[in-house]
Automatic annotation (TrEMBL), chain A:
Species: Actinorhabdospora filicis
Domain ABC transmembrane type-2: 32-262
Membrane topology: Multi-pass membrane protein
GO BP field: response to antibiotic
Keywords for the protein's UniProt record, in alphabetical order: Antibiotic resistance, Cell membrane, Membrane, Transmembrane, Transmembrane helix, Transport
PROSITE patterns: ABC_TM2
Protein's UniProt name: Transport permease protein
GO MF annotation terms: ABC-type transporter activity
Family, per entry: Belongs to the ABC-2 integral membrane protein family.
InterPro entries: ABC2_TM, ABC2_TM_bact-type, ABC_2_transport, Nod_factor_ABC_transporter
Main subcellular location: membrane
UniProtKB/TrEMBL annotation, chain B:
UniProt cross-references to PROSITE patterns, sorted A to Z: ABC_TM2
Pfam short name (any one): ABC2_membrane
PANTHER family (alphabetical): NODULATION PROTEIN J
InterPro entries: ABC2_TM (IPR013525), ABC2_TM_bact-type (IPR047817), ABC_2_transport (IPR000412), Nod_factor_ABC_transporter (IPR051784)
Main location (coarse class): membrane
This protein's GO CC annotations: ATP-binding cassette (ABC) transporter complex
The keyword Transmembrane appears for this protein: yes
Biological process according to GO: response to antibiotic
Domain ABC transmembrane type-2: 22-252
Entry's Gene Ontology molecular function annotations: ABC-type transporter activity
Descriptive protein name: Transport permease protein
Subcellular location: Cell membrane; Membrane
Keywords per UniProt: Antibiotic resistance, Cell membrane, Membrane, Transmembrane, Transmembrane helix, Transport
UniProtKB/TrEMBL annotation, chain C:
Family annotation (PANTHER family): ABC TRANSPORTER ATP-BINDING PROTEIN, ABC TRANSPORTER ATP-BINDING PROTEIN NATA
Entry GO MF terms: ATP binding; ATP hydrolysis activity
Protein name from the UniProt record: ABC transporter
Assigned keywords, A-Z: Antibiotic resistance, ATP-binding, Cell membrane, Membrane, Nucleotide-binding, Translocase, Transport
Cellular compartment(s): Cell membrane
PROSITE patterns referenced in this protein's UniProt entry, alphabetically: ABC_TRANSPORTER_1, ABC_TRANSPORTER_2
GO biological process: response to antibiotic
One Pfam family it belongs to: ABC_tran
Membrane topology annotation: Peripheral membrane protein
Family per similarity comment: Belongs to the ABC transporter superfamily.
Top-level division of the source organism's lineage: Bacteria
GO cellular component, one term: plasma membrane
Amino acid sequence: MAVMTTLAVRNKGLRPAPMVERNYAVHRHGWIMIISGLLESLFYLFSLGVGVGALVKQIELPGGRMVDYAVFVAPAMLANAAMNAAVAETTFNVFGKLKWMKLYDGVLATPMRPRDVAAGEITWALIRGAIYSAAFLVVMAALGLTDTWWAVLAFPGSVLIGLTFSGIGMLATTYFRNWPDFDWMMAFIFVMFLFSGSFAPIENYPSWLQWAVYASPLYHGIELLRAFSLGDLSPMLLVHAAYLAVVGAVCMGFAARRLSKLLYK
Amino acid sequence: MRAGTLHAFEHWLLNYKRTWHGTLFSGFLLPVLFIVGLGMAVGGYVNGSSAIGGVDYVAFIAPGLLASTAFQISSGELTWPVFAATRWGSQYKAMQASPLSPGEILNGHLLYGLLRGVSSALFFFIVMAVFGLLQSAWAPLALLAAAATAASVIGATYAVSMSAKHESALSMVHRFAILPLTLFSAVFFPLAQLPSYIQPLAWISPVWHGVELSRAATLGVAPPWPIAAHIGVLAVWAVGGWYAARRSLLKKLKV
Amino acid sequence: MISARGLIKRYGDHTAVDGIDITVPKGQAFGFLGPNGAGKSTTMRMIGCVSPPTAGELRILGMDAATQGPAIRARLGVVPQDDTLDTELNLLENLVIYARYFGIKYKVARERARELLDFVQLSDRAESKVEALSGGMRRRLTIARSLINEPDLVMLDEPTTGLDPQARHLVWERLFRLKKRGVTLVLTTHYMDEAEQLCDRLVVMDGGKIAAEGTPRQLIETHVTREVVELRFNTEDHSAYAEKLDGAAERVEVLPDRVLLYTDDGESSVSEVHGRGLSPASVLERRATLEDVFLRLTGRTLVD
């Protein structure tokens, strides 16, 4: 009876913790995978930021300020890392558990509900992404790619990006049928990576393309993190953050509902 | 080439007929997006810079992408599918039950991997021609360079995938071999931009040699090393890789 | 513990469960029999509160299945047809993490997990991965998992399908112990011996409906006779004997390879057969079983 009352009370809110604990138990010995994920984003930073940066040297920001190219690209790589961590966790991993391992079928025979499962997986994706982002920021600071304390705000900023893309990833997963679908998703992610102002201010793009870029959540994430790491704050940042939050919340809402439909057959 | 090799090759080709649409992006669209995206963004700052030989940035990275695409597709094709063929999938079991010899099974699979990379390179080569990025009469040789790059890595990739103990080793191959080889083999910036103590690492990378040969062909300039030296390194990789692949397969089939 | 009235489940045009009524009192072992596609698993999923009924009333443990799913599931133990074990965790972790889904404290979870591994005789494999287990071991682990929340009601969907005889008997013995402890069991099976061994009461389902209900003995008495005589003749075609044997027993059923006589007195039926001048190649007298009931009610044609 005691168990019942506590559960009845808890059932009002979300219960993400058990799913997080489960994932932690699986990855407790798999830290090498997580470290390798961080290294992957550092490879991009060194190649497309530092390496290409040595060619470009300095670029002029829309406001007229000159910065090193690597300083310009680094926050975009951070945003990209946060996005990739969230997407990888909520698509590949969740899809595997949903369709192959049938893991959630077992979980749902307990008091856990589909929305608890979704919340747990998203929380786990955020934790994983936050570890990458924190480490990435430390590397950025160590390399002198940021020199302001505002850059600390890039950490919550990248968690927000993680939240948005966890929602998008979760929702996409409920629509996936098989692996070729993932290739198309990766294509979409990659197009965003190339065209969201990672490598040049989007003011350099043709104007029709600029409008398309405004729709890209990654663009808003990059603008947010870049402003923090350059110490270049403006009220526009609220718009960027709000866009990310709204897209994330809407996708999560739909994802939880669709997951219910998929699992409560 | 023996008929058995072609039979094994045909098996993978038929298999590809079922999954081809999932490879359109990585095999064909991705390199094109790279030249459009990076060319537009970075080109504005570095076009004509002496560090890249005074050419446009797109003209600089395109031949690099040609070789690295062939490399990525061929090696990617020989990671999970090779690992799976003796484990979850039963393709090799079925082939073994037929009169195919291990050598034919191996060569058929390698040939398929090679041709996947070469076909992507061919497509990208045509795109380069359309964009006006083939600036020398030697340009068709860039296709050979791309094919040689793919040929130099298929054996090694096969050997690693075949002898991998666990699936996670394959993600490691992607993250710690295929990706850094793509990013640091002078595709996006000349080797001279790397610190001098790191450069020798690129010298052993087959991708770097392939990229330099490919670039020499499309731009009509001399590669950094004598051509024979570049080809020699690629050949060592190809032959060594093939023997390693053969060993790994024989070991696996005996168990 | 369970009461269902007019329970219906439809998937599009297909009606999987077509208006069934069930009552399961506390402490009973209740079985669903039926061929594949009869609607057993769907019914189990509805009782497990992971499949909302299309229509009808379903109350479990005094609560409404439609609105109080999580609270009901907190007191259920479920052994699904496919084990749904967590293949990325070892055996002990499987149980401990499952306990956490119920909100059971970590310390309690570990203690119970150890006890339950003992109960299903898997203690020595506590640190193994699930993938290394045989089918029977997986089944036992799934049963242990279903008990982690000390449930009042345990639901088992085909608990022994695909197991070898040793593993089946071990599972039965463990289930029997649970029953003795007063746990209510609901199970589906298509093994008649399993149903006779474990179930106090049974329903036979066919085409989404309940075809019969009662104790194993009642079912035999109501739907078939006490004894069955199986006759084989030296012939390619047994159908010719239908007429010749007419009236030799309460009911005569001709199969391609033999003739069955349903009778309350096997011996007199046999002498009747001989009295009619017939000499079968073999004669087998036996007691009627649930299998006879099952085939009588659900027919002999293959369903899938």
